[in-house]
Design a protein that fits this description.
Elements: H1 2-20, E1 33-41, E2 47-55, H2 78-88, H3 96-108, H4 112-115, H5 120-124, E3 127-129, E4 132-140, E5 154-159, H6 160-170, H7 173-181, H8 201-217, H9 230-246, H10 249-260, H11 265-278, E6 297-298, E7 310-311, H12 342-351, H13 362-377, H14 382-397, H15 399-402, H16 407-411, H17 414-428
Antiparallel strand pairs: 1-2, 3-4, 4-5, 6-7
Helix pairs in contact: 3-9, 9-10, 9-11, 10-11, 13-17, 14-17
């Protein structure tokens, strides 16, 4: 949202400039101006007001829905992470350099500016971590030649398996050919482009655009709004969870702050707050490559469900008020559940009042849940999502869809899923198509 706001502001300023110097007609229809009063506090602490001119086509910078981490981004699940890395491991899908950078991001938490400045010397001179022999320490920050945000000094923790991959790449024919083209001093960088120049963050950003497009076309829907920095958010969430499981909150914050090179503890605290409010299950892992597995499937203690694993159909990344009922698509898995009051539906399920679970609906509801989650992570508004869920409940409550005689159509439900999502989205935008 902030990028879109800034771009639109630049467009408006450009045309204002053109209007002042008569590059465009003053009478040409452009937009409607309006005066806006902005309150602020000066350096002495007194409240002041500022009169500003705004346009009706300006795009407001709305806060992202729910709890977020660094740069307003969210971590991705272990399932999505594995899908992404499997996809990028195929050379026709992604360059080897970007694949290794993504792996380094997921397993070290390094920023793109830090990872692209890794050097052969720093890899070769890495030392084993005293507290964990399977980890290697690479000094980063001022004096090391490896960049860090705000010039924070520290060590980059690299798991042994990743270190082997980085060393193997360092002396691979592909990289050595690039090193031959490098100018004096550039050959020491681990990541070089095909012209022998150091791999820049801007190059990685451009490569991520192509990766998002190809991955989305390949069916990885979560990649539509994926950003490289989410690898860091994913690592940080995993690391703070592991740390909290073995030590106190204070010690966990200090450890994660150093591992992720946060200058201020307040940044690390956001991970604590994120975990507390999303209420993710405790994650288990022994090594950084035995990645975390957020429980996307949880079995409830209900004898009517037998041994069926029900996916997590809530939206734990969204903050709800005390008087609000958290969104939950689980009632859609039961006959008549869509018509039950939202605040009572879960208790009706737990009591068995809605009858047995309709297993054939799980795939459809899970697909709808993924669509809504993708919309939320992409910055969708609370009100739009609320209306979408409301209309989805209407869709499921419609007599033909709630009848158990339609069970066969749910099993292969991709067309129903598309129809339901399209209908709910158009309704949320005020254009329901009946």
């Amino acid at each position: 949202p902030s990028t879109t706001t800034a771009r639109m502001r630049a467009v408006i300023q450009f045309y204002r400039h053109c209007q002042i110097y008569n590059f465009v007609s003053r009478d040409a229809p452009k937009w409607l101006d309006r005066s806006v009063i902005v309150s602020y506090f000066d350096s002495a602490g007194f409240e002041r007001t500022l009169l500003r001119l705004s346009a009706d086509i300006a795009i407001p910078n709305r806060t992202r829905l729910g709890y977020t981490l660094e740069d307003g981004l969210l971590p991705i699940t272990a399932e999505y992470q594995n899908q992404l890395l499997r996809f990028t491991s195929e050379r026709e899908n992604c360059s080897e350099e970007l694949h290794l950078l993504l792996m380094a991001g997921f397993f070290t938490g390094g920023r793109i500016g830090t990872l692209t400045t890794l050097r052969i010397e720093s890899i070769e001179h890495a030392t084993p971590a005293p507290e964990e022999p399977s980890m290697w320490l690479v000094p980063v920050g001022p004096g090391t030649g490896i960049s860090t945000k705000l010039d924070v000094s520290g060590n980059l923790y690299i798991p042994n398996e990743l270190m082997k991959l980085l060393k193997s790449y360092a002396y691979s024919p592909r990289r050595l050919k690039r090193q031959e083209k490098a100018a004096k001093g550039d050959g020491q960088f681990l990541f070089l482009n095909r012209f022998g120049k150091p791999y820049k963050p801007s190059a990685a950003t451009r490569a991520m655009v192509d990766l998002r497009r190809s991955a989305t076309r390949a069916g990885l829907k979560f990649m539509k709004d994926f950003h490289f920095h989410q690898t860091r958010a994913t690592f940080g969430t995993w690391l703070i969870t592991i740390a909290l499981s073995v030590t106190s909150v204070k010690s966990a914050i200090e450890f994660v702050r150093r591992a992720m090179h946060h200058k201020h503890e307040s940044t690390t605290m956001r991970y604590i707050i994120f975990l507390e409010h999303t209420q993710r299950p405790r994650l288990r892992s022994q090594t950084p490559f035995q990645r975390h597995s957020w429980a996307t499937q949880t079995a409830w203690e209900n004898p009517l469900m037998h041994e069926v694993n029900i996916p997590d159909l809530t939206f734990q990344m969204v903050e709800f008020g005390k008087a609000s009922t958290p969104w939950d698509l689980r009632p859609l898995l039961y006959k008549g559940g869509a018509r039950a009051p939202a605040q009572k539906a879960v208790s009706l399920i737990d009591s068995g009042a809605l009858g047995p679970l309709l297993v054939e609906r799980i795939d459809l509801v899970q697909r709808i849940h993924e669509e809504i989650t993708t919309s939320i992570v992409g910055g969708g508004s609370w009100n739009t999502t609320e209306v979408q869920i409301q209309y989805i409940r209407y869709f499921f409550g419609y007599p033909p869809m709630s009848s158990s005689t339609t069970a066969p159509c749910w099993k292969f439900s991709i067309n129903v899923h598309k129809l339901c999502w399209k209908w709910a989205t158009s309704a949320a935008l005020g254009k329901p198509s009946y």
